[in-house]
TrEMBL record:
Leading EC class: transferase
Known catalytic reactions: 5-(2-hydroxyethyl)-4-methylthiazole + ATP = 4-methyl-5-(2-phosphooxyethyl)-thiazole + ADP + H(+)
Domain of life: Bacteria
Cofactor: Mg(2+)
Family, per entry: Belongs to the Thz kinase family.
GO molecular function: kinase activity
Pfam family, one: HK
Annotated protein name in UniProt: Hydroxyethylthiazole kinase
Functional summary from the UniProt entry: Catalyzes the phosphorylation of the hydroxyl group of 4-methyl-5-beta-hydroxyethylthiazole (THZ).
Annotated NCBIfam families: PRK09355.1 (NF006830), thiM (TIGR00694)
Amino-acid positions noted as binding substrate in the UniProt annotation, renumbered to this chain: M51, G199
Alphabetized UniProt keyword annotations: ATP-binding, Kinase, Magnesium, Metal-binding, Nucleotide-binding, Thiamine biosynthesis, Transferase
Pathway the protein acts in: Cofactor biosynthesis; thiamine diphosphate biosynthesis; 4-methyl-5-(2-phosphoethyl)-thiazole from 5-(2-hydroxyethyl)-4-methylthiazole: step 1/1
Length: 261
């Protein structure tokens, strides 16, 4: 495996400009905790969120959407069936979909479902280090929804998953890595404060879904999704006292983000 490269400012600027121009419609099937925050993050980037969750409606709606997000954070059997219907429909119509395997590992329902989803061709997978290790059967998972591993420790698992399932894997934490199994980009930055408000990881996956719908180099676009999150996060953390005001500053920074080349 080759050493990680860095995303250039020119690549970031190109991907961000394309995202704002295309304003993708992102079909989100996500967990109960993060619905509003996820929608607000997408809106701040000029994308359009739509949370359509009934099995029949989801299978229909995915053909109107530019991207689909599957997040198993508050999975139930009914939701699993609806997500499966949406993914199968996405495969038929060619809508790229992204998996967020929240807390995969210790719990059977979500672990078996995530393993099933892997063979249904996700365009991208975004998880924290413990989730990526668990998905590759190399660890039992994290502490609930939080990681107990560093991303360096999960990089080879991310590369292996990407190769095995012909997908992109973004493993996020202090340093984010995005890999297709051959090329890997490292994205430093962000702030520990990002982990002190709920939903940043889940929203990150929604942003990965949005960027993965863009034409061109998907690895570049997904790395740009990570850098957009880390830039907005680090700028917000510098300006605020704690988690409450962080959320507002983070959304404002996504809205105003400019990249100088
Ligand atoms: N120590 C850190 N320093 C900077 N950014 C971080 C740090 N930990 C997490 N992040 C960022 O916070 C967001 C949430 O990521 P993470 O904690 O990995 O996911 P999850 O919330 O799914 O566990 C990501 O954008 C990630 O890059
Ligand atoms: C707390 C919680 N419990 C089930 S899903 C969820 C949200 C997790 O959000 P994130 O992974 O973005 O921290
Ligand atoms: Mg998460």
């Amino acid at each position: 495996m080759t050493q990680p490269d860095l995303l250039t400012p020119a690549q970031l600027a190109q991907s961000l400009q394309l995202l704002r121009q295309q304003a993708p419609l992102v079909h989100c099937m996500t967990n109960d905790v993060v619905q509003t925050f996820t929608a607000n993050v997408l809106l701040a980037l000029q994308a359009s969120p739509a949370m359509v969750i009934d099995a029949e409606e989801a299978a229909q709606f995915v053909s109107f959407a530019d991207a689909l997000l599957i997040n198993v954070g508050t999975l139930t059997r009914d939701r699993r069936d609806a997500m499966l219907a949406a993914v199968q429909s996405a495969a038929k119509v060619g809508t790229p979909w992204t998996l967020d395997p929240v807390a995969v590992g210790a719990l059977s329902l979500r672990t078996e479902f995530c393993q099933q989803l892997l063979s249904l061709h996700p365009a991208a997978i975004r998880g924290n280090a413990s989730e990526i290790l668990a998905l590759d059967n190399q660890a039992a998972g994290g502490r609930g929804v939080d990681s107990v591993h560093q991303t360096d420790a999960a990089l080879s698992a991310a590369q292996q998953l990407a190769q095995d399932y012909h997908t992109l894997v973004a493993v996020t934490g202090e340093v984010d890595y995005v890999t297709d199994g051959t090329r890997t980009l490292a994205i430093p930055g962000g702030s520990p404060l990002m982990t002190r408000v709920v939903g940043t990881g889940c929203a990150h996956s929604a942003v990965v879904a949005a960027f993965s719908s863009l034409p061109g180099d998907r690895l570049q676009h997904v790395a740009a999704a990570c850098r957009v999150m880390s830039l907005a996060g680090e700028q917000a953390a510098r300006a605020v006292q704690g988690p409450g005001s962080f959320v507002a500053a983070f959304l404002d920074n996504l809205w105003t983000l400019e990249v100088t080349v």
